[in-house]
Design a protein that fits this description.
- By secondary structure, this protein is an alpha/beta fold.
- Helices cover about 40% and strands about 15% of the residues.
- The strands form 4 sheets. A 7-stranded mixed sheet has the order 1-9-8-5-4-2-3, sandwiched between helices. Strands 7-6-12 form a 3-stranded antiparallel sheet, with no helix packed on it. Strands 10-11 form a two-stranded antiparallel sheet.
- α4 packs across α5, α4 crosses α8 and α6 (about 120-125) packs parallel to α7 (about 145-155).
- The structure holds pyridoxal-5'-phosphate (PLP).
- Pyridoxal-5'-phosphate binds near residues 66, 95, 166, 190 and 202.
Length: about 375
């Protein structure tokens, strides 16, 4: 993950930099948990869940083991099973599709709007059938999809809506945070995400009490009360006290850290303006969470190589669409051509972006990109 990159290297992400800044507070939180004797689903998890629910403006949050587990549990809570169709974009992180396939459901893969790298209400509408059991939208890279308009489409069809917010914690539409619009919002605390644990973690958000009760049961063997299972499909996926105690500290700083991500993105936009590069947009009224800063270039691979030569690390999110991976393709239904997805995959390049990136480092990246096009 290049956390310990040499000082002259600009890494793509650097969770160790944030953790170093918060070290005394994190260590105090760890000591508190060690001394408490409660290590799973205790006071820290309860407090974290309440604090995250308040920040999101939802009735409840349920902490689980990872973002992927959050998606699996969300689908289970909505009754998705073998042969059911679940609509999702083909341009997303593998886990979105893996969760659907794990349940034996059919991933119905749709295209994206190339401006925001996410699905539109029109694309979702073309994919719905009698067999659709859920729709998953992904706020990819941190840009919100138009989830309010999509919810009108899904509600009209009587289909529940899941928001995959793994890359978008802290992103907003108007004043409202993503994850509060659909029936269930799913979050990942993978260390490089906007809210990163020191290990794995995830959460679900909902304002529907019946759904929340199911989510809580599903993370602990289907139990509705101790030692009594009533909800089918329950396994074991719990956020632990250590991660929750540390996440509480980071949650308190999330707004500031997303604000810094957005400022870095703005510096990139200004510095890279006028080059033959497609820069990320931010739709009116939408606040991009900027988990990633993804540009598009027909010379992507040469540009990446040039940047590497100048000590600037880059990423590809993602090198393969979902429908280009055999495991998912074999299970999928593809209702329309995935032309935008196929056109963008060879051209996307993620530039370094994390809150501790300095302005001087951003300027170095900008100069290196400009140097490539000036050759
Ligand atoms: C990271 C990610 C996930 C999975 O989260 P994990 O915590 O790694 O399981 C799911 N969807 C998207 C879009 C992601 O970026």
């Amino acid at each position: 993950m290049l956390n310990r990159a040499a000082p002259d290297i600009v890494p793509l992400a650097a969770p160790a930099a944030e953790n170093a800044r918060l070290r005394p507070d994190l260590l105090a939180a760890v000591a508190r948990v060690i001394d408490s004797g409660a290590y799973v689903l205790g006071d820290e998890v309860r407090a974290f869940e309440a604090e995250m629910a308040a920040a999101l403006g939802v009735k409840g949050v349920v902490g689980v083991g990872s973002g992927t587990d959050a998606l699996i549990i969300a689908l289970r809570a909505l009754g998705v099973g073998s042969g059911d169709e679940v609509v999702l974009p083909s341009h997303t992180a593998g886990p979105t599709a893996a969760a659907v396939c794990l349940l034996g459901a059919v991933p119905v893969l749709i295209d994206v709007d190339p401006d925001i790298y996410g699905v539109t209400p029109e694309l979702v509408a073309t994919a719905l059938t009698e067999r659709t059991k859920a729709v998953i939208v992904v706020h990819l890279y941190g840009h919100p999809v138009d989830v309010e308009a999509i919810a009108v489409v899904t509600r009209g069809a009587g289909v529940p809506l899941i928001e995959d917010c793994a890359q978008a914690q802290g992103a907003r539409i108007g004043e409202r945070q993503v994850g509060s619009f659909g029936d269930i919002g799913c979050f990942s605390f993978y260390p490089t995400k906007n809210l990163g644990a020191i290990g794995d973690g995830g959460a679900l958000a909902s304002s529907d009490e019946a759904i929340l009760a199911k989510l809580r049961a599903l993370r602990t063997y289907g139990w509705v009360r101790p030692q009594y299972a009533e909800v089918p499909g329950g396994a074991c996926s719990r956020l632990d006290e250590l991660q929750a105690a540390m996440l509480r500290i980071k949650l308190a700083g999330l707004d500031a850290s997303v604000t810094r991500r957005r400022a870095i993105a703005e510096r990139y936009r200004v510095g890279l303006h006028g080059l033959p590069l497609r820069l990320p947009v931010e739709r009116q009224g939408h606040a991009h969470g900027h988990h990633l800063f993804v540009v598009r270039s027909e010379q992507r691979d040469a540009l990446a190589e040039h940047l590497k030569g100048h000590g600037v690390m880059t990423g590809r999110h993602y090198p393969y669409a979902v429908h280009e991976q055999p495991v998912f393709k074999a299970a999928a239904r593809i209702p329309h051509p995935l032309s935008e997805t196929e056109a963008l995959i060879p051209e996307i390049l993620s530039l370094p972006l994390f809150p501790e990136l300095t302005d001087a480092q951003v300027d170095r990246v900008i100069a290196a990109v400009r140097g490539f096009f000036a050759r």
